[in-house]
Amino acid sequence: MIFTSLDFLIFYALLMVLLVLFKNSDYRQSILLISSYIFYGWWNPAFILLILVSSVQGWYFGLLIDRSSDQRKKSLYLIISLAISLSMLAYFKYFNFIIQTIFSMVGAQLDDNFNIILPVGISFFTFQTMSYGIDLKRGKIKVCKSLPQFMLFVAFFPQLVAGPIVRASEFLPQLHKKVIITRENILFGLQLFIGGAIQKVLFADNLSKFVDPVFSTPELYSAGTLWLAAVAYAVQIFCDFSGYSLMAIGVARTLGFHLPKNFDMPYVARSITDFWRRWHITLSFWLRDYLYVSLGGNRISTIRTYVNLLITMLLGGLWHGSSWNFVLWGMLHGLALASHKMWILLTMNVSDRIKEHYFYKVFAWGLTCIFLLLTWIPFRCRDFDQTISYLKGLMGNTSGIEWMNPLVLTVLSFVVLWHLLYLLSVSYYTKYPVQRVETIQSQIILGGVLLAFAMFAPLNTSPFIYFQF
Amino acid sequence: MTYAVRLLFVASILLFSGEIVTRILISSPATSMSDPEIGWIYKPYSKIFHTREGWAVNETNSMGFNDREIVVSHDKKEVLVLGDSFTEALQVKQANNFTSLVEQTIPCVDVINAGRSGLSPVQYDTVSKRFFKAAPISQVIVVLNYSDMHDILSTNATIIRDQDGEIIDIELHERQITRLRQALDTIFSNSALASYLKDRVRMGMRRKTKVNTDNVKIGAEKDEIAKLKEILNFMFTRINKRAPLGVVYIPSLKYMPNREIRHDSQSALFERIIKEITEMNNIPYRSTMKQMELSYKENSRPPVGFSNNNIAYGHLNEHGHESVKSVLVQLIGKKCSSALMLSGISH
Questions:
Q1: pTM for the complete prediction?
Q2: In CA terms, which of A384, A406, B22, B162 is 20 to 30 Å from B244?
């Protein structure tokens, strides 16, 4: 069930009716838990078992960690819980990849029927379960004694399949309060949902009509077209994922829950470090807190810091999917983060006047953008061969087809305008606060948005890109 | 202002703005009307604003087809071209479509464009009848493309056979227009926005219910090929009896690096079938493959597709129409008698 489908709208309407009918908080939590399982099972009911196993083992080992006073036992329980989560992830997400790699190394042919289906959202909910155990062991959170509440934390449908990755410390305390449906939350949540839908349906889906054919056969297109498609993909993946996150945050808000922000205008970043503070924030902070810090972070030595960054990003790349292209993408980002750290050390004595100079900022922004643009290419391409073909084409394929799609140029202009408005501090959040929703201007804007959906939304909605991760 | 009045006010503003935006940028009000024989037809002398692929405004003639008015002249040879949306060519200006380009190349020929989107070759004979009444047609050309293979097999028609199993007629079943649709047509014919939204809903529904023909492999079952051959044979012989027939095929292309193009395998199969049937009946046949290949080599643009949709797939663009024109000129013959030439120039 995807947020932009009719199925979801019906599901959501029925859920709201039930929540309004049953005012008791325990009932409401139960309704939310059951509806979350229905939401997940809509795609493939068999995989409900997977999320159930993930939740029960996370909860049970959490109890054992909490009850044990021996640190070694706590560590043992945590290791067992992490091993279960990671083996589920390894089997469903990486087994195909490992077997295919081994087969290709020995030159053998794999049976076409061999294919393990990747359950939607597995990377997201296993990370949530893992973070709960680690935080508990570190003594950062209190144990969750209620199994239904823990199950709801893992399976809460707005963020279940593509994030934001919510931590127990952010979500479980909200379950201790009453689930209250308020008019203000509904209005604000719907505004966020519509904002996300604009990004997804009007921007990302329209761009995909250009990006998909160009990336599928890059050797046919001219250098100019390939550059335009690279820019369009950079915007598409941002609008697609940021749109989904915003819709998830919006839906959760209408139900009275607060989810963390996942994007903060990443393309205005002036360094790769800044980019990772703005892009998929919940994942990058997860990797920082649970992987980078666990590896030693920057506490051991300068060289070790760089190595830790590289390992974190390599694994971060692999988290996105079982393909060497994601490993390459992660490695390039790891190298860039390490290089930026080095650059900071090297320019420590450079005056702030230079660093704050307009040209320095623009140069830094431009360099970051070009790096991001080029690294999105292996991220989007099917394999190494296609990546090389695309990069070769970028460097000057003059015999290819020239395709300057006016629709893409229009969408890109809107996105540039939106970023400019953000830079001028006229952000969506401050421009349309909840209080103004009943004014005639707000109603015209809302009506205009609905009309724009009816007129310009592509007829076949593409699935969210991050569903595959 | 009461809530209802305000809502009405907001809705009016939005619908009015939507109507203006649609008329300026997207589409004209509905231009089609019901036709008992071929389902629907464009209204006579209506302007059709097409923006889905390319950007063109064209005007229909008194018969509701995208062509100039038919003016019968004894000095000119009347050639009827039957086809679907590829022949109708709403994507380019009327003066640039292949039927007009042929007229510009051979002045003594009047090419009547009888193309209409959504028509199946099974319907071409029915369409041709009304043109035979309107003008003394001396040659008919059927323009086929890859999608026709699916259209023929999926046409809503009953094949009537004699005792020996030979086809004697094909009875078409066009759905009768309902009263509700007639009532709605009044709204659609006056509002560009309403007619555009109706088209989107229709296309959306069709996409949900229709099997993606790109993935359907015709020929997997022997019956399909046999049926295809049988229907084509029947249609070609029937039209050929009215006037000498020629057949043109526009293949589906597969693009390769360095501006090379190949035949799509299913398209090649359809071409073989057409070739076999035309040879069997001594009907002149041409494929546009070579011309398209040459056009793609000379221009950096493929012969089909538009920037605002898909640059390499879809309907014929200006280069594609030039390619088809060259083939049509071969079929019709370029020579005009001096008397015809003079009258053609003076016309």
A1: 0.83
A2: B162
